[in-house]
């Protein structure tokens, strides 16, 4: 593919003005990024690009983990960074109306100021945009309680490939008037339309938070513990994060930045958290429910946090995934399998890793959401075989009827493995949708599906 | 349109056998209803009908309230009543896999036997099927806490108009592998495909239930009360049902089947309920939170139920909508408006009703979900003007940017008013989807969109 035609770029510059086009003619950064300031400008851009057959990559905070925002020289970037206003925060109705370029953390803080919660949170909160969160159907740390990004969207505005603006800014919890077309665009990774504005449902901000780190002796007990806690915390369970010992023990090893709140040597470490509304009663009930779990033998050891700093210390252990890279080259995978298959799935991966010397195989995950992060690599860079590791992992996922992408999406990174989690009939149906909504394949082409695959369908 | 061709019916009879075709050649019931017993049979039926251009109406329990299951003489019914098995109830994973013809209540009871909750409940639970619930995205009495039917679906199998079977029976909470195509079919009222099997997410069964009927003096306090309760019950608030006094006072009038738990004369009556996990602590906290609401002046009088029979008595008042028909001919409407506009919306409808003598104007609703049921009519049958009432109501909904269908769907009943809640761009996009997935318009034709509208697009 060749660079964008100078005529098209000139037309866009006239439309958007100097501030609206960033041109960076270096080797590393994408060449041209458009920065519209209104839905009308997004529409005008798409009309021009549609007529010229010019491909575009919609850009949020570029924090995605599947290369869904990767931009080639022949593509134009379409950044919504200037469309970042919080247009409305309706405390009575508990909704917020936000432009797609608004940073997640900014939106969350605005909600918090009204004692409301935007219940979407993950590490990249300070850079990720709401538009990007919706385009990738982001997950994160509270999915077990509040769902994925999709589950908190009430309304949405999207610009189609041909420039048509579809405004569907519903603010009501119930609205069954025809097809729920916002769902088509959420999680579509910018391949079906450009999300420009959204209405998010807000929740009451929690007034209490209880956190514990638990040691568990076997995986059967992990599953039972999940059911026990979920059944006895009235829907307030907001995190059930499991660390396999290889993770926990490395992150809290002698000389690391983290103190180990529980001794090494257990089979599993589980971080649990509830979000409630009555600090005193919730703390008491949390302790009681965990005490009963210990009596039943589901938990062998426990630390309950007594302060925000103790809580942070435990979450920092859970979140310090980057520390692992000190071990050697590795690939972090984001997959799902149902909980009853998890133990055997992990064992099979471990067995598969035995063919290498010094393999790295580390597992942790949002087990309450069926979501595992599996990190595979090799301490010896010479023995690090990217393709073989990918094949081992994804073939096992396929055999376990799991998902090759739990929360990160497909982008470029998982395109080749999509068929392991989706049947031919499903893929054909998706491609039909893509062809209907973007007949010239100008919206984030080659993401999710390669252009070849689309033209062959 | 003419009757189905005898050749097509004969072909289908050979496919399905005697038990699989019900022919009722009378004036009232539909003539031909097909009763497949497997997904393969549904697929074969659709292939035959697709080739012959024969229209079909997918049928669940036929309890829909928008005439989405209405079948003309020229259409074949496609009932999934024989596909009613619970294929799998996975307690560890907290999911159930069910054939679409399974009755909602049957599924709910199976979940309950495992101490799990299928959190979908409404009056027609004993007849409605899971397939119908999903096709209409059913709502009901616990939406504020658990969402609509859509929000509890993890996986789905659907047969397309051309007979293609698309099996997408995901059991995992997180799965971002390409477009979430199950969403396309949920709420599409059988116009895009026939849902044959589903995977539902189950929740822990509640261990406590607290219910109260509250009197509130003004609508501003209703809104504040909702926020207060939701903010102080940690997400356990499962019902916030408001009865305007005309409803409450008629249903509990002297000589009716219901005793009035609170005296007449208040501005609003609010039924609130929480579902928790600790009977003793939850009862105490419920009473405390309501007590504080009274101290703040949000509630002027309250009755807390102390037994299941007291609870039932209050819900029976809320649910006895049929009793209203004693007043005269009327139309029950199901609409949404955001909470801050509700009072003025209702006032405007009331003012509009003043042009008639003896008007009936009764309002109640799932106010926590923005959903109002407005019942309009006239005590004098001579003065009952169907069209004028519809116009008054839907024009007002349109002016308030509400939804002409909150939870009942569009079917035939609301087709003419869909444009009041959806823009031309939205409607065109929906029709594009319909044409892509059902090019011959054989799946529940004329529902949501008239055939004219589709062919004109």
Explain this structure to me?
Two copies of one chain form a homodimer. Chain A has 457 residues and is of the alpha+beta class. The first copy, chain A, folds into four domains: 6-79, 2-Layer Sandwich (Uridine Diphospho-n-acetylenolpyruvylglucosamine Reductase, domain 2), CATH 3.30.43.10; 86-204, Uridine Diphospho-n-acetylenolpyruvylglucosamine Reductase, domain 3 (2-Layer Sandwich), CATH 3.30.465.10; 208-319, 2-Layer Sandwich (Alpha-Beta Plaits); 322-415, Alpha-Beta Plaits (2-Layer Sandwich). In chain A, 32% of the residues lie in helices and 22% in strands. Chain A contains 14 helices and 18 strands. Chain A has helices spanning 6-16, 39-52, 104-113, 130-135, 143-146, 182-185, 219-232, 245-251, 279-295, 308-319, 339-353, 386-399, 424-437, 451-456; strands spanning 21-23, 32-34, 56-59, 76-79, 86-90, 95-99, 116-117, 153-159, 165-168, 194-201, 203-204, 208-216, 237-243, 268-276, 301-304, 330-336, 359-366, 371-378. In chain A, strand 5 (86-90) and strand 6 form a beta hairpin. Chain A is globular and about 70 Å long. In chain A, 54% of the residues are buried. The mean pLDDT of chain A is 96. At the A-B interface, helix 5, strand 9, strand 11, helix 7 and helix 9 of A face helix 5, strand 9, strand 11, helix 7 and helix 9 of B.
